[in-house]
Specification:
alpha/beta, Protein-Tyrosine Phosphatase, Chain A, Aminopeptidase, 2 domains, five-stranded mixed β-sheet, 15 helices, 20% strand, globular
């Protein structure tokens, strides 16, 4: 479910495997990783053992040499080789930026500087990725900007769609709190001046990809003209080593009712789904809107369910027994499905429909003849999904009060059961 591999000292270490790529294939798991500073690792620690167990054979450090000297490099080990390739040539202090600086235009402009200034180092890094026959990890300080830029280039050459590249960039948002805590610990408890420090809004990567194409014509033209590499040959090599066919079989889905101890997983799943939406221009959910207390309350007042595939979380949903905010006062004739969500790229096909069917069976077992739900009126794709599952539009609530405090319009859908 979660791309972030858990470490005590690392907060943004994740596997790039599983993303959809060219020709219906996907990126291999366990071959390509991105991370925050590996200089935080220490020998003879659980984190060190966990890192070595991943089978990484090449480490690329994208920081300035002076950063690595000041903050430490990954400890030496016979199992991997280390290269320091500083792709950024004009350092800047993000923490000291003023609050009026918009992260999207500002950081995308810095990325374009790096694309030009760091051409030699970027080319060397891409060569290492293409040559790697086993696990490779690249990192910078927080695993966000320089790391995100190299990840975007590799994923783009693999044929990964832009919206997925943008989504991958934004997943740093799940680590922002921990990255901020580390910064404060190093700086006497102070907070950064810039409120966007350690944030990764989708606008940064969206604007960078557009600017790259506006200036160079295409990613391939940038690789050929600026990096001096054969883009077609490089892409072919990367795809041959890093892509695999999508699985032919679907793992069995198991379902269980959630308990209060599952609340952190539910928050994480919901925030991940929110980032997936934002990367595709769907402004329905925002990360951080629902806390653990929300899910515990829903367990107490209704039901919350989790779905698993091959032992990993694949999705979840909430079942309410009334919903006056959207539907007004109603008799006890329905169950209301909320927050139907699946893990992006890893949930088996049909997981959402399977969970919806289980919710409907729970409603029918309670003796209620209707399943009801609502979706954002500005999300026609989701409305079509529910209509294909047998739901009928029965109205619209133009001013539903949500957790954000701002009313919004929702489409009301209903299905007669049995």
């Amino acid at each position: 479910m979660d791309r972030h591999i858990p470490f005590e000292t690392l907060h943004n270490f994740r596997d790039l495997g599983g993303y959809p790529a060219a020709d219906g294939r996907r990126v291999r798991a366990g071959r390509l990783f991105r991370a925050d500073s590996l200089g935080k690792l220490r020998p003879d620690s659980p984190d060190w053992d966990r890192f070595l167990a991943l089978g990484v054979r090449t480490v690329i450090d994208l920081r300035h040499p002076w950063e690595a000297d000041a903050r430490g490099r990954i400890p030496e080990h016979d199992s991997f080789t280390y290269r320091n390739l500083s792709i950024e040539h004009r350092p800047y202090n993000q923490a000291a930026l003023t609050p009026d600086v918009d992260p999207g235009p500002y950081l995308s402009a810095r990325f374009m500087e790096v694309a030009e200034d760091g051409a030699e180092e970027i080319a060397a890094a891409l060569e290492l990725v293409a040559e790697a026959k086993e696990g490779l990890v690249f990192h910078c300080a927080s695993g966000k900007d320089r790391t995100g830029q190299l990840a975007a280039l590799v994923l783009g050459l693999l044929g990964v769609p832009d919206e997925v590249i943008i989504e991958d960039f934004t997943l740093t948002e799940l680590a922002t709190g921990a990255l901020l805590a580390d910064w404060r610990a190093r700086n006497g408890g102070r907070s950064p001046v810039w409120p966007s420090f350690a944030r990764a809004p989708e606008s940064v990567m969206r604007l960078f990809l557009k600017a790259l194409r506006d200036r160079y014509g295409s990613l391939e033209a940038y690789v050929t003209g600026t990096l001096g590499m054969d883009a077609q040959a490089l892409s072919a090599t990367l795809r041959a080593t890093l892509l695999e066919p999508a699985p032919a079989s679907r793992p069995e889905l198991t379902l269980r009712r959630a308990e209060p101890r599952d609340a952190p997983v539910l928050v994480r799943l919901r925030d991940t789904a929110a980032l997936w939406q934002l990367a595709r221009g769907i402004e329905q959910w925002q990360p951080g809107e629902k806390t653990e207390a929300h899910f515990v309350d829903r367990m107490r007042e209704g039901e919350v369910w989790l779905a698993y595939a091959d032992g990993a979380v694949a999705g979840a949903w909430e079942l309410w027994w009334d919903d006056p905010a959207a539907w007004g006062p109603r008799p006890a004739d329905a169950g209301y499905v909320h927050r139907l969500m699946t893990t992006p790229h890893t949930a088996p096909p049909g997981t959402g429909r399977r969970m919806l069917a289980r919710a409907e069976s729970r409603i029918a077992a309670a003796g209620r003849p209707y399943a009801r739900l609502d979706c954002l009126s500005a999300n026609p794709r989701l409305r079509a999904y529910y209509e294909s599952a047998g739901y009928t539009v029965v109205g619209e609530q133009r001013a539903k009060e949500g957790g954000s405090g701002s009313p919004y319009a929702v489409t009301l859908l209903e299905k007669r059961l049995g």
